[in-house]
Structures are given as C-alpha cells and as structure tokens.
Amino acid sequence: MKRFAAVITLFLVLLSLSGCGFKDIDKRFFVVGTGIDWSGNKSKPYRITLQLAIPSPKIEPGASKIQYETIDAPSIAEGVRMLKAYVDKELDFGHCKMMIIGEELAKRDINQSIDWMLRRRDIQSVATMAIGRPTAENVLHVQPASERYPGNALLLSFGADGTESSYNYAETLSGLSRRVTEKGMDPVLAIITNDGKESYVINQVALFDKSKIKMILSPTETQMFNQMSDHFTKASMHGMFKGTPMVIAINQLNSSFQIHKNNDPLLINMRIKMDVVFEEAPNGLFESPWGPVEDALSLEYEKATVTLLKKIQKHGIDPFGFGLRYRAMYPGPNSWDNWNQLYPNAKFSVDARVKIEGTGLIR
Amino acid sequence: MNERIRLLFAEAADLKTYTLRNKDMSIDIAYIAPLCDEKMVSDFITVPFTKEEVSYRKHLHTIPEYLKVEDSARWQDLLLRGNVMIRDNETGDIYSLFTGDVICNESPQTQVESAIQGPQIALSEDLNKSLNLIRTMYPVPELGIEEYSVGYISKTPLLVLFDQRHVDPSVLDNVRSKLSSISVDMVHAAGELEKLLIGKRRHLFPTVLITERPDRIARALGKGKVVVLIKGSMFALIMPASFFDFMHAIEDNYEAYWMTRVLIIIRYMSIVLTITLPALYIAIVSYNPELFRVQLAFSIAASRSAVPYPSYIEVFIMLFMIETLIEASIRLPRYIGSTATTVGGLILGQAAQQAGLVSSIMIIVTSVVAISNFVIPINSLSFSVRFLKYPLIVSSIFFGITGVAVGLFLYLCYLCNLRSFGKPYFRLHGKINPAEGDIGQVRTK
Q1: Terminal-residue alpha carbon distance, chain A
Q2: Which of A112, A218, B123, B137 could form a disulfide with B130 if both were Cys (CB 3.0 to 4.6 A apart)?
Q3: Where are the domains of chain B?
Q4: In this predicted complex, what is the ipTM?
Q5: Contacts with A59 from chain B: Cβ below 8 Å
Q6: Closest by alpha carbon to A136, among A91, A105, A92?
Q7: Where on the tree of life does the source sit, at the highest rank (chain B) (predicted)?
Q8: In this predicted model, what pLDDT tens digit does every residue of B363-401 receive, in sequence order?
C-alpha cells in the first residue's frame, strides 16, 4: 500500500512538471533563415526578417513553400517576440542554419546580433553566418527555382554537401563568436549579393575589426584569401608563362605561417604548397620541362599574396590569426601590447611551391 | 493389499486390481491402467506367471526391476507414477515394477531456437530421451545427475545435471537449496520453475536461460553451469546465466566468423532500438525536432499535420495494435494465424495512416520496434524486453530526451545490480568471450 502511494505521489509530481517544452512537431513553425537589417529608424533600429518553412510531404525541386515575416523593432529579442503574434504556431529556430546580417548593419555593429544568437538556446552554434547585400531581407526573398525544400539552396551553397566554390567562405556562429572575442584573430564573413531578382552570388568576403566591416575583398582576392587561410575548396588559378595564358586547377593546397620575432621589423613568413593540374595550357607543354613553369607560377602567386597581405595589414585587421599565434608563442603580461606595436610595421614573405602533377591529358 | 489400495484411492474406474493364482502361488496385482503399458504388464507378469516355466517367485527375487516395497505409505505414489504393485500372498512381500508409458512428443524438431546448421533435434518431453541426447553430446563420466521432484500435487520429476569437474559448488548448493525449498502445488513449465527458482516475482530480465537445444546444454555443462531438466516440458534451464548468453545465438559458433560478428553487433543495436525508439520518437518529435535533418523534420511535420492527437497518443495507438497483433498470432491456431497477420498488416500499414490516425514515420517506428524485437535469439529475453519500452515512453512524455537517457541509465544500473545465482549478471570485464556466451564467471572465485 505504501509503495502504491509512493508511485501515485511520484506520478503526481511528474504531472506538475508537464507542459514544459512539450510541443508537437506539427505545432512548430520552423525558421529556416533569419535576416537582421538596419532599418534606418533610430527608435526601432532592427529590421528582422524570418523565413518560415511550410512543411510539405513532397520534397522535389521547386516544391519549397516559404512564408516571410518582417518587423522593425528596438531590439532583436523583442522583435522576435512581437513576430509570434503574426503566426499561428510556435516559432522554432532549431533548424535555422542560415543567419544573415544586412550590410548596412554590419558596417555599424554586429555584436548585438551575435549576442542574441548565442544566448537563444534553440539557435544552433553550427548555424552559418553571412552578410546580405544590399539587405538581408532582400537576399532571403530570393527563391531559386531549383530549391527542393525551404531554405535549402543557401544552406547547400555554404555546406560541404552542395557546391564547392573557391569564392565562398563559410563561417559558423561559434566560429564567428570566437573570432569576435579572441584577441589577435578578427572575424570574416562571406557576402551574399542579390543580383536582380532570381538568384544570388557569393564571391566576396568582408573583413571585420571586432565589431564592423573594415574592408571588402574583390572576388579574386577572396579566392586568394580562402587559399591562404587554409579554407581550401577546389580552386583554379590563372597565370602567364612566356606570354601564353594558362589555367590550372588546384587539387591540394596547404598553407601555414611562421612568425620570426628576431627580425626587425617582425617577419611573418607564409608557406603555401599546392598540387596543380593544367586545365588550359599552351601546346607542347607535356614534352617541355615543367620546372620553369612551376617557378614562374610560384613567383606570380607570391607577388599577389604579399600585396593582399599588405593591404589587409594597412587596415589594421588580422583575419589570419597572426596575433593569436604571436600571443601563443611569446606569452607574457604585455604580449598583446607588444603585438599591437609590432604588427603595423611587420614584413611579409610568402613562399609558394607550385607542383605540377600532370597536364590533364593522358598520352 | 488390493482392498487397502482400493480404499486409498477414490472411486476410479481405471484402477485395476486382480488376484492371480497358479499351481504353487497366488499374487495380488494392482495398477492404474492408462499410466501403464498393458503389453509390459502381460509380458512381465501375467504370461510368465501362468506359463510357469520358471517359478514366478524366482522372477521376483532375481530380476532387479522388481523392487521390494517396505513402506506402505509409498504405494499411492508408486501407482500414480505407472508402477504395478505385486504382492506375494504366501510370504506377504510386496514388489513394484515400473511399466510406465508416458505420452510425449517423439524426438521433436527445434522450433523456438531453430538453427540452419547445428543439430535440428530438440529436447524431448520425456526425461530419458532428453538425457539420451545430452549424454550423447556430452559423453563424460563426470556428469552428475540428481533427481528432485517439485509440486505437492504434480510431483513433477526434475533432473539436475552438472559436470563435477567444472561446476561451482556455491552455485550448485544454491540450486539444491532453492529446489528443495519450493512449495507450490503444481509445476508444469520451465518458465514457471524459473520464477520459483529466482524467488523474485517481479524481475525485469530473465536470469535463467531457458533452451530447447541439446547442443547449447552440452556447451553450458562444459562451462560448469548447472542444467535442470523438467519432465513434461521440452525446455531445460541453464544457470547461472549472464545477459550476454541471452544475446548469443547458438549459430554464432557454427557460421563464418566475420558475418557472425556483424550479426552480434546488429543484435545489440536492435535491442537498443526496440527499447528506445518509441520513446525517442516522442522526445524528438515533441521536444527536440532539431535532432532530425531538415528534410526529415519537414516531412514528419507534414505527415503529422493530419494527426489530431499528440505524439504519445499516436505511439500508444500503434503499439497497442502491434502488441495485440503479435499476441493474437501466437495464440491463434495456425490456420487462422495468417489471416490475422494479413488483416493486421494491412490496417497497420495503410489504413491507419490514410485515416490520419498516425503519421507515416510512426508506422516505420512500429515495425522497426517489432522486427528488431524478434532478432533477440532467446525467447524469454525478447519477451521481457518487449515491456521495457513502456516506462521509457512515460518518462519521455514528461522529460523528453533527458527522460530517455535517465531511463536507460536506470535500466543499466538495474542490470548491473542483478545477480544470477550469486554471479554478476551484467559482468563485462574479466575473462570474457561474449561470442561464446561465456563471461568466465562460473569457475572464478
């Protein structure tokens, strides 16, 4: 009898806990994309756009259905709470893998947005971050005809499942927040540009100081930046050899860097090794020795990269994490101050080693 | 003697009592006709008695099958076990002769634990035939056999088998004392005896292995385990047993190495699935849908949108259906059995989903639960595992994934706490060979 009573009590205690979080999957509205923009209005600075998925049992190209909700709000959390009044189901950010920040907002401050994302428990730390141009709202409204289910297209562009573009820089929420807080490593985000109406282009990255955009790289620089930061995806490279243009595909690329403190000024040495195959080559290359070609390509590559590094240095930002390495190698109470003095005058040297694996043809 | 015997029994038409007389002696004989082989009665008693080639008294003295009965209190018992009572009316000596004729299945095929290779013959319901099989497969002089009987009314004969060299004396003593302390009226099945031996009525896992395979028994004897045969049941009990014994199909020893290893892994995966899947369905669908991939989340959300009830009602509907279907197909006569599965399969597969009662994913969940339950090689474990999912479902309704994890943890604690005749039931370390079903616990101190 006592046992029975104990079981009943336990059950009653359990019952009092119910209702906390129990919400069936069909009573949830999955947010598949979140856009945060600068609205231009001082009292309600944030414009929040939510891309809501309408689930359908059919998953086929072009069958995705999306509902959009947009609101201006004084803060992001408030905006999302207000948006709940506009929809019939509970908003769930569990599947929101795409977080887009408007370019205008990114030029002001991204810390508020990142803080909100990190604090909300249902937003995953692996969510992909990007910049939307001209606005995040604009980018989210693009619906490619081939999209199979809501929010898939953008996600595929960034993930490893879909396209592997060498212009694309995928950054996760956790990665971004690390770069925002870590001394000596600055945030980088890809820019999604809406060209016209039906699609978007991702071929640029924006480099940040700790809170806002400092410089935007051109597509060519973006590709080079991706290679140098070891963010490698299959890439191609153009070059000239004795006046004939050639295109090579990079199969394998490793890059690393070292900091030499003994030099004055500080020397940062970057080593980039790549295995390449020709995609377009001058005739008769197979029989001629490859050594001079390799050297010429390496030299050209070195020149271009040093220019890029100097350009980034001039803006006073450090997306490669040189400062972090310096702090790790030369620790001490004032190592960060030392670095801040040394970095603006640091010299760069790049050591590129192009290795031709083949001409792409079988003889 | 005959008058006394008639007094001892109720008015029974099948109790036969005669007085026979020849030239030099007269005897009383009494037996219960259906229990005895009438041919044996005539061959051993009536024919030699009337022919008188040799004095029948000499028969009684020389042939060892005639046992002298001193104690009249044993008469009833002997008669009920198929003995013929013979009284030499001159000397007053009373003898008994066993002429029992037990109806049993003749060398049956394995049905519950079938194997493609390996012996196809199962234990018999008759103890002698079973012993014959076991002795043939385990021809060792050290094989000890002890006789017991349990049940005040049924007086079911039991045989306790063990290999004297290997057996752990503490286990053997434990079995002996448990067997002699059993006080019930009737025992007819191995499972019934198992419960009596364990003592605890409400156990979640079987701690005694019930098998019908003589090869499994021979292996168990070789490992020093104690085997109990029960008359009238074609199943034997092996003790002590570990959890891993129950997950071990005898064919793992006979078939190709790599595939059997894979099968063992699959078996453990499926036991986890069959226990957790319904609970995980509730937890993920209602608490943490972000655990699915996006596509799956959307298609579940879409297929659930027609379902009017919360996820746990859906789970209960489907589980009720599948459990009743399994139960029905076991109990039904074979001729109707296929009808039940067809109707059940159709209803479960199609109609329930089209009617919007359950989502299509739930049907997959249900069938995975049912199928992976059947993968467990020993029936008693698969039966008890069928229950384990329900407490997990309840905890997942209230606590989601945390509830499932805590529930599983509690199960593991319970398993680790279990003992089978004093030996750890869930022992993982030590000299283990789970593939052989041996956890090396019997012979170690």
Answers
A1: 89
A2: B123
A3: 2-98, 127-239, 256-424
A4: 0.77
A5: 295, 298-299
A6: A105
A7: Bacteria
A8: 889 889 999 999 998 888 998 999 999 999 999 988 888
